[in-house]
Every structure is written in C-alpha cells, then in structure tokens.
Amino acid sequence: KGQNAAGGRAEGVAQAPEYLEFKRSLEDVDLGEVRRRLEVKLPFPLEGKLTFEVQAAIPVNTPQHLKNYRLNGTATLPRVSIAGVEMTDVHSRLRFEKGILELQELKGRTPPPKGAPGVAGVFDGTARMELDPLGDLSADVHVDHFPLAVMLNLLPGAAGSADGSLTGRVEGHAPAKTLTDATTWRGTGSLTSERLQSYGLAL
Length: 203
Hints:
This protein is mainly beta. Helices cover about 5% and strands about 55% of the residues. The chain has 2 helices and 11 strands. Strands 1, 2, 3, 4, 5, 6, 7, 8, 9, 10 and 11 form an 11-stranded antiparallel β-sheet that branches. The termini are far apart. The N terminus is likely disordered.
C-alpha cells in the first residue's frame, strides 16, 4: 500500500477514503448552511430550503474532499433561487458521486420576476453539475409557458423589457463560474410562443 523502505506511507500517495454509510431524512435544510459546512465555494448565489431522503456515504478520513462523498435519493425544494432564477415546487431524484451532481426526474415551476405580468411556467427534465472540480452546469428540459422575462432579466439592461412565455424543449450548458453571465450560456432547442413582447415590440 504505497510504503517506503522505512515502513511508512510513501509521499504523494493519495489516501483512500474510508466510508460511513447511512440513510438520512431531513426537512427544511438551509442550502446556504450546507454550502458553508461542506466548504463548497460557488461563484453564484444559492438560496432556499431543502427536504431530502438519501442513502449517503461520507468519507470519514478525507472529509475535505467533496468528490469523495456519495449521495443517492430524492429532494424537494418549496422555493430555490439559483443565480437569480427563482423556482418553486421543485422535486427531483438526485445522485452525487465523483464530484458530479445529477438530477433525474427534475420537475418544478418558474414564476415570472416580481412585478412582471404572467403566471408561473413549469419544467421537467434532467440536469448535471460538476462541483469538484467546478465545471459546467448542463440541462435537458421541457418547458411549458416558461416566462421570457426570467431569461431576459439576466441580461444587462434587459430587466423589465419582456412579456410572454415559451413552450418546448431546450438543451444547454454553461460554465458554473460564469453562470450569472447569460452571454456564456450555450444551447439548442425548439420553442414556440402564443405571444411575445420585448423592448416594446410585440411578436
């Protein structure tokens, strides 16, 4: 096991994680507190409360390495805000392993920004985020009456300039470190709308 001539551990050999496995259910866990306790540094704001039921494996001898944690279960968030995008009634199956968070059977609602007209849209699909090391966030979702204002509010100078909603399927990805900068997003999709208005122009 990586030992030197004197019988000690060889320098530079990574310590293999030793796991404590258990099942856990918690309600109304503050996401900000979880992030602080695990020392996860995210370059975008994250707010909300989480209720979950998971099978977990915690690396007791390497707790500082997030990529060694393993989680598998379900999660519910009555409200969550990620990089300024508000979502409600979010439900998902989750899996975390090797530093990657995967969300399956992801469903939720997206209300229009405060003061904007319209009703909440709905979405369902999958999402994936590379957390350790920090990499990309990617998603494949179907949206139904998704408020256009939610997207345009993330663009400089575009807040409050849109009305209408979008329905269809979208695949996209963005670097997590620039998630609040919509100009770094990349994606494809097929979308339709009954009515759109942006910058005073009705379509």
